[in-house]
Design a protein that fits this description.
The complex is a heterodimer.
Chain A: H1 2-33, H2 41-59, H3 62-86, H4 91-109, E1 124-125, H5 135-138, E2 140-141, H6 143-161, H7 163-173, H8 175-180, H9 185-211, H10 223-233, H11 238-261, H12 267-289
Antiparallel strand pairs in A: 1-2
Chain B: E1 2-7, H1 15-37, H2 42-55, H3 57-82, H4 90-107, H5 111-140, H6 144-164, H7 197-215, H8 217-227, H9 229-234, H10 239-266, H11 277-288, H12 292-316, H13 321-342, E2 343-348
Classes of the chains: A mainly alpha, B mainly alpha.
């Protein structure tokens, strides 16, 4: 059964490749649910990737790297939160500048990391599950992959069953009403953006420390933008995000595998696939969205309490 | 204590000058700290930057050569922005323009028609590339920020494919280059430098666009759609037509930038047509607030950065990425500073009823 084995290894690799996307998408879902669009995801992820790589290289501990990646993402998100929530600046402008800032800073500070070898995150074999047929491939992942899977029900619960989730929803849908009810709009939005940045930073660190296992300039290669599309695709629901993330992880893996098999298709065409596919998925999502899933009503709009003159 | 934020009734004019200047200075300060962190004296680095741009004939003409494509990408972002659209895809449109122009340069005949056709194909290719997100936005309300950006990757991989594959030159060793263009496919140069006629054309395009958007009914329609879609609807202006046409104009200008770079500067198609001019167009458009004449001014600032950035790279080994950092910081400081033009801040007692 070579096909089944190939399939199992493909699934396993897709999960690994999809995990950075999953973290960033989940983080962005929280931020966007609160009404704040963070277009800077690409910059946030790449900062996490470089910082994580650097800290792992220096300390020899990839877990400190993952944490540092999260903190780097959080710091960039802090800029976004300060500008968009506190200063009520246009969210698109700030987000776009965050991309430039993240790519610029990592290109500048990471110049000596190119070609270096850090300590990477090692896979863990889950005792019983890995002994079922083909389980060896799928249940032999690094811990960040498992944490990512675990995050999905956790965030679902947080968003749908807790007070914080209700407030998040209220603030993103109708900040005026939420404000009237005494919900601290700005505080909730600020926190949501920070959580989003932290998760995206971890996603970036997983990319450099477990999937790509290397640092190069602009390592994320548009993944942040793909995640922004995945948020729309998921209808702002964590349980859908995981499918999108793994699907795109699979696409990434597949383009390399087909290349290795030598299907005669140019490497460059293979590399185009995720971007074209993202646009198609986005198109599918917006057409479908008209009937059912809506974006948070206040998404992208700064909330300014009514002015008195 | 409670911080109270109120909209200003009027803003002192001087604020509009202070903020950009202060933002540039603050950004230089921040970048200076970064330079110190990697052991470079920032004053020395800035000195090299300025002396390169203003100290030599080559550097000074190079300032114009680098400013010209930034003017064009700045316009390519500005026009859709006036209609309320983000064109983050100028980079890809530039690459497609470069591809189409190179195709004409390498394969078309007779010589007399080549240069005009390069311009035409460059414009059309940029336009065609921008039409995809424009159409998807108008028809399906598909987020143009994401679609324009993703198409950049596709365009860049397309050009890479060509220069590694079918359009790779015969005498380029292993470089991802096409063959050099024939003389008749090259824009004339002046002063024995790289200053080419495209630079002058770029300025003329900026002026033409200024006239288009300030003096014509089309320009007025774009502005209404961008600033007040409801009013546009009442005035009977088709939002969809404006969206698509603004993207097409932006794409055409970026496509021309691509043509200009291969025909005026590289003299061949290569994998790296642009060091990110398409992205630089975004801060330029923001600083210029959509005014094409201010685009020229802002483009000079960033042109200086690129000239200085490459000087700093060759002298101190500082990665050119520092240019991106500077761009982002300037815009962040300016929009942060804008807050103080729009609002005044006062402090009140805690618990005061608002």
């Amino acid at each position: 059964m070579i096909e089944a084995e190939f399939l199992a290894s493909l699934i396993a690799a897709s999960m690994r490749a999809g995990t950075p996307l999953l973290f960033a998408t989940l983080g962005e879902i929280i931020a966007e649910r609160s009404g704040v669009l963070n277009l800077g995801l690409e910059g946030v992820m790449v900062s996490g990737a470089m910082t994580g790589f650097y800290i792992s290289l220096v300390t020899g501990n990839p877990w400190l790297g993952v944490l540092a990646g999260g903190i780097a993402g959080l710091l960039l998100a802090l800029i976004h939160a300060f500008f968009t929530v506190s200063l009520k600046v246009d969210q698109a402008v700030t987000g776009l500048m965050l991309v430039l800032l993240g790519l610029g800073l990592t290109g500048f500070l990471g110049r000596d990391l190119v070609g270096q070898v850090a300590t990477y995150i090692q896979p863990i074999n889950i005792p019983i599950l890995s002994s079922i047929p083909y389980g060896n491939a799928i249940f032999n992942q690094d811990p960040v992959v498992y944490v990512g899977i675990f995050l999905v029900p956790l965030l679902w619960f947080l968003m749908n069953k807790t007070r914080y989730g209700m407030e998040l929803f209220a603030v993103g849908e109708n900040p005026e009403a939420a404000d009237t009810m005494g919900i601290p709009v700005d505080r909730i939005r600020f926190l949501a953006v920070l959580i989003g940045g932290f998760l995206a930073g971890i996603g970036g660190a997983h990319l450099s420390l477990a999937y790509a296992k290397v640092w190069t300039d602009g390592l994320t290669a548009g993944r942040g933008w793909i995640c922004l599309a995945l948020v729309i695709f998921s209808g702002w629901m964590p349980q859908r995000a995981i499918f999108g993330a793994y699907l795109f992880g699979g696409l990434d893996v597949l383009s390399f595998k087909l290349q290795a098999v030598g299907l005669g298709v140019s490497y460059h065409f293979m590399r185009m696939i995720p971007y074209i596919f993202t646009i198609l998925v986005l198109l599918f999502s917006v057409i479908r969205e008209r009937e059912k899933f809506g974006a948070p009503s206040a998404l992208g709009k700064p909330y300014i309490r009514e002015q008195k003159f | 204590m409670r911080i109270k934020v109120e909209k200003r009734l009027e803003t002192p004019k001087i604020v509009y000058i202070i903020i950009p200047v202060a933002s540039i200075l603050t950004s230089l300060l921040f970048v200076g700290v970064l330079l110190l962190a990697i052991g470079v004296n920032p004053l020395e680095a800035y000195g090299v930057m300025l002396s390169r741009a203003f100290g030599t004939k080559f550097g000074f003409t190079e300032l114009f050569v680098k400013t010209a494509p930034i003017i064009l990408t700045g316009l390519a972002v500005s026009i859709p922005l006036r209609a309320g659209l983000w064109n983050i895809g100028a980079e890809g449109q530039l690459y497609m323009g470069a591809f189409a122009a190179s195709f004409v340069a390498l394969y078309f005949y007779p010589p007399i028609i080549v240069l005009p056709l390069m311009v035409l194909f460059g414009l059309l290719a940029g336009m065609a590339w921008a039409s995809i997100p424009g159409f998807l936005k108008a028809k399906f309300d598909l987020n143009e920020i994401i679609s324009t950006l993703l198409l950049n990757y596709v365009a860049i991989y397309w050009v890479e494919y060509l220069v590694y594959g079918p359009m790779r030159g015969k005498e380029v060793y292993n470089f991802p280059y096409s063959d050099l263009f024939n003389d008749y496919a090259i824009l004339p140069r002046f002063f024995g430098t790289r200053f080419h006629v495209g630079v002058i054309i770029s300025f003329l395009i900026a002026i033409a666009i200024y006239i288009l958007i300030t003096k014509t009914s089309y320009g007025f329609a774009v502005k209404i759609v961008g600033s007040n879609p409801k009013a546009a609807e009442f005035a009977g202006i088709s939002r969809k037509k404006i969206i698509v046409s603004a993207m097409l104009i932006g794409g055409a200008i970026a496509g021309f930038a691509g043509m200009m770079e291969v025909s005026g500067l590289h003299l061949r198609l290569r994998a790296a047509v642009s060091p990110g001019y398409g992205y630089t167009g975004i801060p330029v458009a923001l600083l210029a607030r959509g005014n094409p004449l201010f685009v020229i001014v802002a483009a000079f600032l960033f042109g200086l950065l690129y000239v200085g950035g490459s000087a700093m790279q060759t002298t101190f080994g500082i990665p050119v990425a520092i240019v991106d950092v500077f761009q982002a910081l300037v815009v962040l400081f300016i929009i942060g500073g804008d807050f103080f033009t729009r609002y005044s801040i006062s402090f009140g007692e805690k618990g005061e009823k608002r």
